[in-house]
Amino acid sequence: MSVRGRCAKVLPSELNKVCPERGDDPATHPRKMSDFEVVPNLQQSSSSVSKSRRKAHFPTGSNEKENLISWIPENIRKKECTYFVESSQTSDSGRIVCECGYLREQHLDDAAKPPIFLGKEWDPSRHIQEMPTDAFGDIRFTGLGQKTGKYVRVSSDTPPRVIYHLMTQHWGLDAPNLLISVTGGAKNFIMKPRLKNIFRQGLVKVAQTTGAWIITGGSHAGVMKQVGEAVRDFILSCSHKEGEIVTIGIATWGTVYNRESLVCPMGGFPAEYMLDEENQGSLSCLDSNHSHFILVDDGTHGRYGVEIPLRTKLEKFISEQTKVKGGVAIKIPIVCVVLEGGPGTLDTIYNAITNGTPCVIVEGSGRVADVIAQVANLPVSKITIALIQQKLSVLFHDTYELFTEGKLVEWTKKIQDIVRSRQLLTIFREGKYGQQDVDVAILQALFKASRNQDHFGRENWDHQLKLAVAWNRVDIARSEIFTDDHDWKPTDLHPVMAAALISNKPEFVKLFLEQGVRLKDFVTWDTLVYLYDNLAPSCLFHSKLQKVLLEEREHTAGSKMPRLQLHHVSQVLRELLGCSTQPLYPKPKHTERPRLSIPVPHIKLNVQGSSLRSLYKRSAGRVTFTMDPVRDLLIWAVVQNRKELAEIIWAQSQDCMAAALACSKILKELAKEEEDTDTTDDMLALAEQFEHKAIGVFTDCYRKDEERAQKLLTRVSEAWGKTTCLQLALEAKNMNFVSHGGVQAFLTKVWWGKLCVDNGLWRVITCMLFFPLLYTNLITFSREKRLQPMGCLTRLRAFFTAPVVIFLMNILSYFTFLLLFAYVLMVDFQPTPSWREYLIYFWLFSLVCEETRQLLYDPDGLGLVKMASLYFKDFWNKLDICAILVFIAGLTCRLIPSTLYPGRIILSLAFIIFCLRLMHIFTVSKTLGPKIIIVKRMMKDVFFFLFLLAVWVVSFGVAKQAILIHNEERVEWLFRGVVYHSYLTIFGQIPSYIDGVNFNIDQCSPNGTDPYKPKCPETNADNKKPIFPEWLTVILLCLYLLFTNILLLNLLIAMFNYTFQQVQEHTDQIWKFQRHDLIEEYHGRPPAPPPLILLNHLQLLVRRGLLRRPATHHKLKEKLEKNEEAALLSWEMFLKENYLQHQQCQEKQNTEQMIRDIAQRVDVLAELLDLDRVKRTGVVEQRLGSLEDQVHQSAQALRWMMQALRGNGFSSGEDLPAVGSSKALDFKEADVEGKAEERGPPYHVLARNLLYPGSYTLRFPVPDEKVPWEVDFPLYDPPAYSADHKDMAVQDPFSLSLESLLKINYNTMDGLIDRQSFHGLYAVRDGLPLNPMGRTGLRGRGRLHCFGPNHALHPVVTRWRRNLDGSIIRKSLKKMLEVLVAQYPLSDVWALPGGSLEPGETLPLKLKWILRREFWPQFQNLLKQGTEVHKGYLDDPRNTDNAWVETVAVSVHFDNQNDVEMKRLNSFLQGCDPELCIRWQVLDKRIPLHANHKELLHKVSTLLGAYY
Questions:
Q1: C-beta pairs of 672-680 under 8 Å, 24+ apart in sequence
Q2: To the nearest 10°, the Cα dihedral for 1230, 1235, 1240, 1242?
Q3: What is the largest CA-CA distance in the chain?
Q4: How far is CA 1383 from CA 1024, 1210, 1255, 1337, 1391, in A?
Q5: What pTM did the predictor assign?
Q6: Which pLDDT score is estimated for 1339?
Q7: What is the pLDDT, as a whole number, of residue 165?
Q8: From residue 597, how far is each of 525, 594, 901, 919, 1205 by CA, in Å?
C-alpha cells in the first residue's frame, strides 16, 4: 500500500470533532480580535504560542513543534475517498482509477470492499469522508538552499477562521495590513521584459512597505512563478530583516506533484520536497519562493480549481478582520491583481468586482487581462458581442475555436458588468503618467474604491487616511488624500497624528503639521500619558519608568501596580536632566488632575485595546494644564531615540536652544545606562547633532546681537525646569558649545565684572595693592565707556567686587596662609601656640565658614540633600574637606601634650593637601589649566597600572623571600622583603645578597633577632656561605626587570602619552570649559579674602537670620519679564528658521547630495523619455487609425457614387469592383477617465445580476444589446425560479403550469391585486407577462409576490440641513438636504421608508412599522400634498422576465424648520419599533442606500435645486 494509505492508519481512530461554527462562552475565552470567533481547541495553544514570541516567521523551537503536532490533527482535516468505483478513464500510465482519480492501492483497505448501503454510483458527498490531516510542518526544497517554509493539507470544507488562526497563532504571522490576491494564467506565458520588471518591483515594494500578504495559486508556473521570482529577487537584494515577505500559495492537494514526500502524520520538520518540472506531467510542482502553502484537499486527484472556493472564503474572512497598526484600526483591505489569464481568471475578476474588491489589471500581460484593459475605457453600450468576439480572436488565437456562442454571450455580459464598476477597476498601463509603478497603481486602486464607496459623512476619507498611515505611504497620502476634493480640519487629524507618533512615522507627522495640526491643541495631559503608556518595551526609558512605578508600589505597600502618570515621567526626567532642574510635570492632587481637552470627531482608532478617541473628549471640572507642547513631544521622541521624529518636532520649538541642549543631556545620560552598543552609538550621535543645532542657532543669534544672545544663555527657562542654556550645556558637558566664542566672551565679561575687559592684569594688581590709583585713569570701567560718571565709592565697590579682583586677592591671601603655615611648622612650632599659630587657626576658621556657606547656599530651593550632592561632586571641594579634616585632627593631637609630635606630623600632611589645592587656581591659566587635566587623567592611568605592577611585584617578592629567607616571622621585614625591596629593584636598588657574590654576613642577622637588620639567607654551617641556587634567583631577577622596567614602564609611558595627546588636541576646549567653574565660584563669592571674609559671613548671617531677607542670586541666571522673554524667544525662533534654511541650502550644495539629486534627475529623465516613446507610439497609432477611418469613409463615398451612377443607367454591365477595404476599427479607444460617465444605462442593470438575491439561482447572461424583446436571441434559455412566501396571505402560484397561470387576469384589477402597469399594456406570452423593460435572464416571479407589476410606494421625506443658528448649509452654492432613511431588521443597508404595497392597502407595511398608527392618516395627507417625482418601473434585483417592481416616489419636503407637521413626524418617529434604526441623513451621491433609491433621491434634489 502507498504512503498515502498507510499514513491514514497511523492516526487515532477517535479524534475531536471538526471545529464548530460557534465558539465557547466569550466570558471564558475573551476575543483577541474583532470578528474572530473562538472555536474549541483553538485556545488550547494560545498560551504557549504567544504573540510576544513571534520574532520570526518560522519558529523552530520544540514547544512550537509540540503544539503543532497536537493542535493540527485535532482541528484540521483532510479528505479521503472511502469507496472505490472504477472510472471509465485511466491514469496517465493506463491503469484503472477510481472516480476520484486515485488508484486502487491508494485507497484505504476498506475502500475496495464496497458495502451494500453505499450504492453503486460514486457520490462525493457520501463516498468522501474527512479525517485528521497527515501532511503539515516545515517544507524544504531539495537542492535549493536551506530556506524553509510552512505547509498544511486542509479539507476543502475547513472553516476560514481555523486556517487564519493557524497562520497567525501557530505559524507566527502578524495580521496583514493589506491582502494582495494575485491571479491570472496558470501556465507559463511571455511578458515584455520591461513590464515584467515593473510588475515584480512594484508588487514586492507594495508588499514590503505595507506589510501585506501575497496570495497566489502556489504552483511553479504562470503568474505564481512570476510572483515567486519577484520575491526571490527582492530577498537576494536586501538584508534579512527587510526581506521577510509573506507569500502564501493556496493550491489543490490532488494536483501537486511529489506530494507523497509531504505526508507525515506527526509533521515534517522539515519535509524534503523535490521540484521536478520535467516529470510532473499534468500535475504541478510547488513554487520554492513561496513562504507558506495551504494545500486544499477534496479527496480527488488531478482536478484543478478545487482551492478556489476555500481561497475566496479565506480572503473574504481575512478582509473582514480588524488590524490595529500604528494606532489605526482598519478592516484589512484586499486587492486583486490580474496578469494574463483564461476563463477561470474572468470568473475570479467578476466575483471580486461583485464582492466590492478592487482589481488591478496589468495591460500587456495577455489574454483576459488585455481584453478587459482594451475595453475598459469604452462606454458599456459599445461593448458588444461582436467586439468581444474580435478581441478573443486576436488574444486567444490558439484556443479561439473552443469559444461557443453561449460562451461569447457569457463573456460579454461579465465584461460589461466588470467595466460598469469603474470605481473598482484600475488598468495599469506601462508608461501611463502617474502610474509608472505597480505599487502606486495598487494603492491608487484601493483609494479609488474607498473614495467611491457609499458612506455617511466623511467616513471614506477617514478610511483612506487610516490605510495610508497603516501602510506608511506618505506619498500616496499627499497625492490621493490631501487634495482639493476634501477640506481637512486640523482637529480631524489629531487621532491619526497620535497614531503616527506611536508607530514612528515621521513623514506623516511632518505632513500633518503641514496640514495645520497645532501641537498646542493636540497635546493634552491624557495624550501625554497615553503616549508614554505606549512606549516600546525595549526602550530604556520604559524600564526606568517601570522601576519608578515598582518603587511607588513598594512604598505604598500596595499589591497593584500604580497607573503611569506624568509625575512619574518627571521623576525620571529629573534624574536625566540633573538635580539643578525643577520637576517638569507637577504631581496632581487627589481631587484634581491637570488636563487639556479638545474635541475631535468620532474616528475608530485603537492602540493595544485603548481608544484614542477618548483622549479628546471634553471633561468638566478639571484643572487646565498649560505647558509647552513641543517640549513634551520632543522629550517623548528623544527618550526613545527617534532621530527623524525628534528633528521634526525640534524644528517646531520656540525655546529651541535650551531644547537642543536638554535633549543632548538626556541622550548622553541614557547612553551611559544603555546596554546595546549600537543604540548607545546612535544616542551619542544624536546628542552631538543636537549640540551642533544649539551651536548653529547661537552663532546666528550672536552675529545679529551679542547682548541678546548672551541673555539667551542666562535666561531662566520655565519650560525646562527653571534652568538656563548655559547650565544645561555644562550639565551635558557640551564642550563645543561652552567653548563657543560668544559663550567665552560672556564668561570673560562676567569675570571682569564692571571693569573693562581690556584692562591689563598688571594694572589690576597695582590698583589692588595701591587702591588710591583707582581714582586715576589707570583702570577703566564699563560704565565710563558708556559715558556714565562714577563716584569714588562706586568705583571702589565696582573694583573690589569684580570676580577677577576677588580671585587675585584670594590667591594673595592663600599664599600668605601657606607661607605662615610653613613658617609655623618649620620654625615656630612650640608646646604653647604662638600668636602666628593662633592666626593660622583663625584663618582656617574663616575657610571653614566659607566652605559651610558654599554647602548651605541654596538660592534655587533645591534642599540640603541636593546641595550636598552637588557640593561633593566637585573634586576640589572634596580636597578642601579632606584638608580641613586632616588639619582638625592634627590640631586635636597638637593641643594634647602627649601627642604633640604626632600632631605636627598630621599638620605637615595637611600642609601637603593645602598645597595641592593650589592647582585649582591654575585652571584660569590657558597654559597650565589643561596640564592639570592631564595630571588628573594620568592619575587614573597610574591607578589601573598599579594593578598590573602589583602582580609582578608580589609574585617576584614572595618567590625571592621564600628562596632566600627561611621562616622570617617579623611582619615589617616580610613587607620589606616582599614589597618594598621588590619595588626598589625596579629603580636599580638591587639587593647585594641576591646573587651571593657581594654577600656580607655582617649586614644581616643570622637568627632574625636584630630588629635593625634583615634575616640572613640560607647558609651552610661551616663557612657561612649562602647555599641558595644563585642561578635561579638571577634568572628570576632578569625576568622581573625585563617585564617591569621594559614592558610595564613603557606601557605606562605609552598610556601617559596617549592621554597627553588626547587632551592636547582639545586643549583650548578643555580650558574654556573648566574656566566656567572658577568664574562662577568667584562670581558668587564674598569680595573679602580670608580671614576678612568673616565680615561678609557676619553680614550674610544678619541679613538672612535676623532681617529674613531672601538670598541674592549670585549664579549666572536672569529671570526676564514676560514681554521681554516673549520678544527674545520670538527673535530666537526667527533666527532658528534662518539656520534651518541655511542648513538645507548647505545640504543641497553638498557633493554627495548633488550626486544623489543628479542621479534622481537622470532617472526621472529616463522615465520621461520612455513615456515620450510610448506617447509617440500612441500618437502614431491614433494617426493610423484616423487615416484608416478616412480611407473607409472615402471608400463608402465612392461606393455610393458608383451605386448612384449605376442606378441612373451608367452601368458598364460588369460587377461592381470592391472599393476600398471594409476592415476598419470597430471602436476608438479613447481615454475617457476624466470625462463624465453615462448618465444612466439604457436598460435595467440590477435586474440582470447573475446571482439572484436570496437564492443560489444563476440568471442566464443577457448582454445589453440582447435586453429588448424585439432583438432576436435564439440562445436565450433562462432558468425558472419562484419563491414560496409562507408568511404572505396573497401570492401567485410558484409553479409555471398553464392551468394555474390561466386563472390570472393581467392588465386589469385582479381582485384586490392591481396588475395594471404605469407603462400601459404589457405583453403576455404562454400565460406569463413579459417585463416591459426587456429580458432579465430569469423566468418566474422570483421573490416577488405577483406576476406582472408589483406596486410599491417610496416617500422621500426631506428637510434643509441647517447650522445651529438656523441658517441653511450650502455646498457648491447649492443648499444641502437631509433625508429620512431607515435600516430594517435583518438588513445591513439603509433604505427609504417605503416598500411594496399589500393588496388593498394605501401605505407600505415597512412604512407602517416606522410610524405610529395614529399618524397614518396625517402622513397620507402629507403624501397627497407632496410632489410625485417618479412613477413607473424600478430597476430592482428581484425583477424577473415575468414579475417586476413599479413604484410611485413622492417628495415630501419641509421647507420651514418650525413646521408643525415635521415636529409631529419626529415625535411619532421616536416611538417606533426599537428594532428599527431611523435617522436624518445628509443627502449626497455617496449616501449608502440601494442604487434604485439613490436614483429617486437624485430626482428629488434636482426638483428642489439642492446639492447632490
A1: 673/540, 674/540, 679/540, 679/641
A2: -20
A3: 168
A4: 123, 75, 22, 30, 6
A5: 0.69
A6: 92
A7: 93
A8: 8, 10, 76, 58, 90
